[in-house]
């Protein structure tokens, strides 16, 4: 629970074809006589932001380091968070999460929705683990130019909402090394979308 609201939900579902009334009949087209497990971990939509900062001819990515209990590791990942309010303000949530986790305040108008470039059939969202979880991600991009002092101030900054149990440390890494630096699926997906959007000329020009 998030206060009085439902946060995460786990349930078992029977999959039924509305036309035939048979359980798992659609799945049987692919796996004969096998029943697909219907355990669902429902956590809803979330957002993550790839922050790229240009400084002195080098592009840097801003990551957060947090303890992730399920994998028993400290993970370097993109600033991210759940869309856990009732307003459905995806971009606003992304900007708010960045500020909470890094201390950076981003201009809403400078944030680019990378998932908006996907084909409409995808719903323009990505699904990190659709085999067991309904979570869908909106991946965003922010690019800016900063002085070297800003990079220095960000490196190692401790942030997070302590009353939410967040203990976060900020890391700044060269973008060219990002794909080898993190095991975070959000970051790797964002890199792929960013590189393809850049290749196809879909991104707005970087502002001075």
UniProtKB/TrEMBL annotation:
Stretches assigned to the Nudix hydrolase domain: 42-195
GO molecular function, one term: ADP-glucose pyrophosphohydrolase activity
GO biological process, one term: nucleoside phosphate metabolic process
Gene3D superfamilies (UniProt xref): Nucleoside Triphosphate Pyrophosphohydrolase (3.90.79.10)
Keywords assigned by UniProt, alphabetized: Hydrolase
Obligatory cofactor(s): Mg(2+)
Entries under PANTHER family matching the protein: NUDIX HYDROLASE DOMAIN-CONTAINING PROTEIN, UDP/ADP-SUGAR PYROPHOSPHATASE
Protein name (Swiss-Prot/TrEMBL): Nudix hydrolase 14, chloroplastic
Lineage: Eukaryota, Viridiplantae, Streptophyta, Embryophyta, Tracheophyta
């Amino acid at each position: 629970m998030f206060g009085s609201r439902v946060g995460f939900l786990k349930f078992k579902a029977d999959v039924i074809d509305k036309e035939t009334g048979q359980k798992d009949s659609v799945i049987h087209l692919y796996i004969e006589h096998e029943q697909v497990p219907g355990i669902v971990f429902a956590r809803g939509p979330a957002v993550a932001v790839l922050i790229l900062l240009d400084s002195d001819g080098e592009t840097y990515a801003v990551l957060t380091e947090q303890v992730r209990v399920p994998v028993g590791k400290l993970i370097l990942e993109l600033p991210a968070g759940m869309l856990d309010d009732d307003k459905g303000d995806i971009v606003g949530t992304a900007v708010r999460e960045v500020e909470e986790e890094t201390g950076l305040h981003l201009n809403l108008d400078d944030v680019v929705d990378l998932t908006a470039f996907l084909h409409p059939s995808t719903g323009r969202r990505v699904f990190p683990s659709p085999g067991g979880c309904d979570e869908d991600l909106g991946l965003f991009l922010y690019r800016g130019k900063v002085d070297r002092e800003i990079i220095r101030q960000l490196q190692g900054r401790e942030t997070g909402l302590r009353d939410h149990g967040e203990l976060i440390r900020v890391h700044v890494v060269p973008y060219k090394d990002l794909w080898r630096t993190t095991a975070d699926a959000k970051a790797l997906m964002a890199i792929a979308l960013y590189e393809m959007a850049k290749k196809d000329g879909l991104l707005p020009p970087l502002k001075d």
